[in-house]
Design goal:
The protein has 637 residues and is of the alpha/beta class. It folds into three domains: 292 residues, TIM Barrel (Alpha-Beta Barrel); 153 residues, 3-Layer(aba) Sandwich (Rossmann fold), CATH 3.40.50; 147 residues, 3-Layer(aba) Sandwich (Rossmann fold). The protein is built from 26 helices and 22 strands. The chain has an eight-stranded parallel β-barrel with strand order 1-2-3-6-7-8-9-10, surrounded by six helices. The chain has a five-stranded parallel beta sheet with strand order 12-13-11-14-15, with helices on both faces. Strands 20-19-16-21-22 form a five-stranded parallel beta sheet, sandwiched between helices. Helix 4 crosses helix 5. InterPro entries: AKR, Aldo-Keto_reductase, HAD-like_sf, HAD-SF_hydro_IIIA, HAD_sf, NAD(P)_OxRdtase_dom_sf, NADP_OxRdtase_dom, P-loop_NTPase. This is Aldo/keto reductase. Keywords: Oxidoreductase. Pfam families: AAA_33 (PF13671), Aldo_ket_red (PF00248), PNK3P (PF08645). It comes from Nannocystis bainbridge.
Length: 637
């Protein structure tokens, strides 16, 4: 399609190639509702036919859908051709206490769409964009949720905002992408340079350029911008009008979305359309800045397929001598390093962010440089949890004529937690607290905190050949069992499982406050007689919060053992904060159990966890041992 052809996709050919963004009419510093409605109607009277809003254009969560309600109220009292107005709204950001927080969970998106339908006063939303990618939710989940809502007839067209080429291509697996909205201005040209505008042109969809003047906080910078000052002087307009004229001059598919809180601002933006932006202006502009995509970015706009002519990969073949890039992916602690060693031993170059520093994005040019220099076998072993994180690696390899193999280590996160704990014990001889893990993060990056591992699991998107992989191989997890570990053990929660307090407190602050629960000694004696060792495993976050001292906790444990009058092989407890869990020793994380199994040579099939809380049950699951509820365990036998 020719780039001179009007290219606004489902928007049609806009007579006024601008849209009004309602962010500033809806958020902090907004005018009164009546004034905001007047500004919207004035823009419509001047020919504006595109209004951009969002469910989160509001002051806070209690004010959600304010911007959409402005649209409904402005249109309901406007005498112009309402059928010509196109309303674009967005979902995927929440506003807790006025903050902007991504929320792409399925249930949140569905709730917000229902709210948007009501606020806009329509039976079907004309166009809805995913406002932002939520790093805590797999993008696949968010995209699938929007596709479902579209199939139900609640949304006519879908698109993405604050996005990337990789995410747009991923979205195409779920629905036809009908619009892309990203920042674009003479001060921020990334969407042009990175190829996103070119992708919109290729797809035949509008590129909605928000912050066309750099954002409200940065508009003053245009007064000294070297790229627009000569253009503004030549045509006798303000630098702001010259900057907007420069975007309009890019032509389709770019549709700038200007913000305004006053009629004068609308008039100023419309004056930009009258600037006779000519060849001399383009030369002046391009001598200082460029919106053109780099050759690499332009290549990345191609659909995610395996290019013709690449060597076909055979699934299951090990490290070989033929060119290939191997992405070794899996959660931290999955065992990638052991797999990578096989490839390095065969002469593959290794790229790992933890070893060479920098970000995942910075590994991509390093990969390109290796391939260009003749190193045709490379293995990358970062986590690569999302399709978007893998996108650039695959494209770079293809650009150099090299196929890509994915080796996915399907290690369950509970087993990965245990692997990290084993590393900690091997290297430091003890479990580490949150601050110790934090201090070691730079020097020992193979010890991720549990929160980082949980984040990976929450964002994980399974690899698939439609990403451009020549082969996807799943490596099942197999835990090595030491045949010498044959011991039997009872892991016993303490508070609520073995004892209660005389005072009624949740946990004792004094050993004299300890009272054994009924039938504890009698039942445990039977297991001791059968060769089981007894272990206490307890969360004691009161130490971290200062509500109880470490000495008092240990004295209460000693009193509990004295009352039991049974041999307790070891007492282990977590003294760290309850939330957020920054250590591996807080149940339900498996640190306490892994440590006991290692030190006492216990066989997992011979270990039973007894507790009274969900965290105890989940601890047993995480550790891979049997769980029995304390009430059932200590019932009369």
């Amino acid at each position: 399609m020719s780039t001179t052809t009007p290219l606004h996709g489902v928007l049609g050919t806009l007579e006024v190639p601008l849209g009004l963004g309602l962010l500033r009419l809806s958020t902090e510093g907004r005018p009164a509702e009546a004034e905001a409605i007047e500004v919207i109607r004035f823009a419509l009277d001047q020919g504006i036919r595109l209004l951009d809003t969002a469910d989160s254009y509001a002051l806070a969560d209690k004010d959600l859908h304010y911007g959409e309600e402005l649209v409904r109220k402005a249109l309901s009292g406007w005498s112009g051709p309402r059928e010509q107005v196109r309303v674009v709204t967005k979902a995927g950001l929440a506003r807790p206490k006025g903050k902007w927080v991504p929320n792409g969970r399925r249930e949140h998106l569905r709730k917000m769409v229902e709210g948007s339908l009501k606020a806009l006063g329509v039976e079907r939303i004309f166009m809805l964009l995913l406002h932002a990618n939520d790093p805590k939710t797999p993008l696949e989940e968010s995209l699938a949720a929007l596709a479902e809502l579209q199939k139900e007839g609640k949304i006519e067209h879908l698109g993405l905002s604050n996005t990337s080429i990789a995410e747009v291509r991923q979205a195409e697996r779920h629905f036809k992408v009908q619009a892309i909205q990203n920042e674009l201005s003479v001060m921020d040209r990334n969407s042009g340079v990175d190829g996103l505008v070119a992708l919109a042109r290729q797809l035949g969809v509008p590129f909605l350029a928000h912050r066309p003047l750099g954002g409200h906080a940065k508009t003053a910078n245009l007064l000294k911008n070297r790229a627009v000052k000569p253009i503004a002087a030549r045509h006798g307009v303000t630098p702001h009008e010259a900057a907007l004229a420069a975007l309009v001059a890019l032509g389709p598919p770019v549709v700038p979305l200007f913000g305004a809180t006053k009629r004068a601002s609308v008039e100023s933006s419309l004056r930009a359309l009258k600037v006779p932006f000519g060849d001399r202006d383009r030369v002046d502009l391009e001598s200082k800045i460029s919106f053109a995509p780099t050759p690499e970015a332009l290549a990345a706009t191609a659909p995610p397929t395996v290019p013709a002519g690449l060597r076909a990969l055979v699934t299951g073949e090990g490290p070989g001598d033929e060119p290939e890039v191997v992405i070794m992916m899996g959660v931290q602690g999955a065992g990638k390093s052991s797999e990578v060693a096989r490839y390095v031993d065969r002469g593959y170059a290794r790229l790992n962010r933890d070893l060479i520093g920098g970000s995942l994005e910075e590994l991509v040019p390093k990969l390109g440089a290796l391939l260009a220099a003749g190193q045709r076998r490379v293995v990358l072993d970062n986590t690569y949890s999302t399709r978007a994180s893998r996108f650039a690696v695959i494209r770079t390899a293809h650009a150099h004529g090299v196929p890509v193999r994915c080796r996915y280590l399907a290690t369950p996160i509970d087993e990965a937690y245990a692997n990290v704990v084993l590393r900690i014990l091997e290297r430091y001889g003890k479990l580490l607290g949150p601050e110790e893990l934090k201090d070691l993060a730079k020097d020992d990056p193979n010890l991720p905190p549990p929160a980082a591992m949980a984040k990976w699991a929450a964002s994980f998107e399974a690899p698939h050949v439609d990403e451009g992989f020549g082969a996807v191989e799943e490596v099942p997890f197999v835990r090595r069992v030491d045949p010498q570990f044959t011991g039997k053990g009872l892991l016993l929660d303490v508070d609520g499982t073995l004892r209660k307090t005389r005072s009624g407190e949740i946990y004792p602050r004094d050993p004299e406050d300890v009272e054994l629960l009924p039938n504890r000694r009698e039942v445990l004696q039977r297991f001791v007689d059968e060769g089981y060792k007894l272990f206490f495993v307890s969360n004691q976050s009161g130490v971290a919060s200062g509500t109880v001292s470490k000495e008092a906790v240990e004295a209460a444990f000693a009193r509990t053992m004295a009352l039991l009058d049974l041999p307790v092989a070891e007492v282990m407890y977590c003294p760290h904060p309850a939330f957020p869990a920054g250590c591996f020793c807080r149940k339900p994380l498996p640190g306490l159990g892994v440590s006991l199994i290692q030190r006492h040579g216990l066989a997992r099939e011979g270990v039973v966890m007894v507790g009274d809380m969900d965290s105890d049950r989940d601890f047993a699951r995480s550790l891979g041992v049997k769980y029995v509820d304390a009430h059932e365990f200590f019932a009369d036998r």
